[in-house]
Amino acid sequence: MLGPLVNALVVIVCSLAGCFLIRGIPDRFEDLIKKAIGLSVIFVGIRGALENERILLLIMSMVAGAVIGELINIDKWMNRLGLWAEKKLGLSGGAANSKRNFSKGFVSASIIFCSGSMAIVGSMQSGLQGNHETLFAKSILDGSISLVFGASLGIGVAFSALPVLLYEGAIVLASLVIRDYLAPEIIREMSAVGSLIIAGIGFNFLGVKEIKVANLIPAMFIPWAYLAFMSLLA
Predict the structure, then answer these.
(1) Torsion angle, CA of 111/112/113/117, rounded to 10 degrees?
(2) Are 23 and 157 contacting, i.e. CB atoms less than 8 angstroms apart?
(3) Do residues 86 and 102 touch, judged by C-beta distance below 8 A?
(4) Could you give the CA distance from residue 41 to residue 43 in angstroms, rounded to a whole number?
(5) Distance CA 102, CA 158 (A)
(6) Which spans in 130-212 are helix H?
(7) Widest CA span of the chain, in angstroms?
(8) From CA 189, how far away is CA 55, in angstroms rounded?
(9) Which of 33, 63, 70, 145 sits most deeply, having the most CB atoms within 10 A of its CB?
């Protein structure tokens, strides 16, 4: 669990540093920085998605995952969790825009930090091999994003460390149980879907059209279920 713990701590420290040390960025800089991050995230997401070798499986996963996520309405529950944490911290007395930023920071950061291929592969390496190098590298990237997000979206970003710890920790533990089904093909297809989901976050930062990206999270697990099932039939 060393890798997930380090990743979560880096997110907390860097987001708090951004929130309290470099907050108050002028609106014009904040807007341009968000768009720059959005473009970068789109590039990273699309580049990862291009590693896919089963395009029909990717499309099927996105559609099926969207249906499942919309039925569960993960986006609504994550926003409620963010608002609940905000109230518990006594931060709910501010403007409505501040409330939205808290939830947006929590939800957006959680998805970015949990959806990528590094979270999946790195956690699997930690669980199966005791190799934490990938998660340490991911911590550096997440810390950089947390610094900027914390400055622009506030303290909600720090609370994304909890989903990061739970998600990566669960993969570390689960990898020990389902290691017989973790073929390289499954990892690749799950990572490709996760990367495409990340690209959706980038579009949200560009302000083109708000996408409930959280409701797409189940799509990332469809390739695992499908390919594991097909391997049993083989």
Answers:
(1) 100
(2) no
(3) yes
(4) 5
(5) 10
(6) 133-153, 161-177, 184-206
(7) 59
(8) 9
(9) 145
Contacts of 185 (CB under 8 A, 6+ apart): 53, 227
The string of pLDDT tens digits covering residues 24-48 is 666 677 678 778 878 887 887 888 8
CB atoms within 10 A of CB 105: 25
- pLDDT score of 70: 92
Q: State the Cα–Cα distance between residues 171 and 125, nearest whole angstrom.
A: 10
Model pTM score? 0.69
pLDDT band at residue 100 under the 50/70/90 scheme = low
Kindly list the distances between the CA atom of residue 72 and the CA atoms of 44, 159, 216, in Å, as whole numbers in the listed order. 28, 22, 11
Q: Taking residues 165-191, report their average pLDDT.
A: 80
Give the integer Cα–Cα distance in Å for 133 and 147: 21
Q: Decide if pLDDT at 106 tops 90.
A: no
- Between the alpha carbon of residue 182 and those of residues 14, 65, 118, the distances in Å are 33, 20, 15
- The first and second tokens of residue 127, run together, are 């669980």
